Amino acid sequence: MTTFTRRKALALLGGSAAAAGLASPALASNRKITVGALRFTSHSGSFIGFERGYFADAGLDVEFKFFQAATPMAVAIASGDVDYAVTAMSGGLVSLADKGAVKVIGGALSEEVGIDGQKFLVSDAAYQAGVTSPAQLAGKSYGITSAGSSFHYMGSKMAQAEGIELKFKPLQKVGAIIGALKSGQIDAWSIVPHLAKPLAGSGKVHIIGNVSDYLPNYQVTTVFTSAKNASGEQQMTRDFLAGYSKGVSDYNSTMIDKAHGDAGVEELVDLIHKYVYADRPREKAAKSIINGTMRLNEGAAMNTASLQDQLSWFQSEGLVDQSISLDTVIDPSYVQTLG
């Protein structure tokens, strides 16, 4: 198998831009691993797994490495800088999988009917000019981190459904997109509710639609690792998924099902606040954390129908090779598959 340095992985990505079934945790061995994450509520499974000792119980000594976009995380997995991560399936990730560098091993965040999900947003300037629904975005600028990102996919699928064209603007980082949207340098974007709702509350941005109206069963993010770990470190991978899945179960039961009442929600908000909106006072961060609650896949089950749709879209856009099959991208042996 090809060995990927960070430089090789970056070079490859530059070209690409033209729990059911989980084993019981191993006895504690204190094996050190690095987990990639974004400071989003959708990564709470990892945060809870760490803070409540579920990874430690599985024999893993976890260190987090934080990112601001999906593609750099895929590079880090391919080069060995990170062992496991949760992120959206991107064109870069698919191309790295095609080269034998990474594998998707589970599902994380999903759109689900009845649960408030990702939003389409517009700048105040666009809203005041009459853009009050996604159908009215024809010819407007739409922020994405990079070509082949989840933002690109969501915007494109919405535009296809509405029969319109968008002007996609790659801005590399989520923070840069937020700044451009608030200042009116771009017209629109889509993002998870814990970011969308506070932005809308500022008056500089407005919510005009739901991603779930266009992608009702969208597998928003996945759990992935290096192909080397997936095939050669099976016990460590099962241990990671076991600890992560316990964190996910706590998150869903507490934040969505309210199985532990208001006290349980407050306790988990305190935990998540260490990682999400940590620079804000707790009382201000709490509302955004709660508003951002979306279902995480129990047992890291993955929706393969949604992942196939994403792969087909990458191919239709010329972002990845037409010969790539979903089996090249995923290793379905660790978790339940849906769809």
UniProtKB/TrEMBL annotation:
SUPFAM superfamilies: Periplasmic binding protein-like II. Gene3D superfamilies: Periplasmic binding protein-like II (3.40.190.10). It comes from the Bacteria. Its main location: periplasm. It is found in: Periplasm. The keyword Disulfide bond does not apply. Residues 1-28 form the signal peptide. Coiled coil: none annotated. Keywords: Signal. Residues 41-249 form the SsuA/THI5-like domain. Belongs to the bacterial solute-binding protein SsuA/TauA family. This is ABC transporter substrate-binding protein.
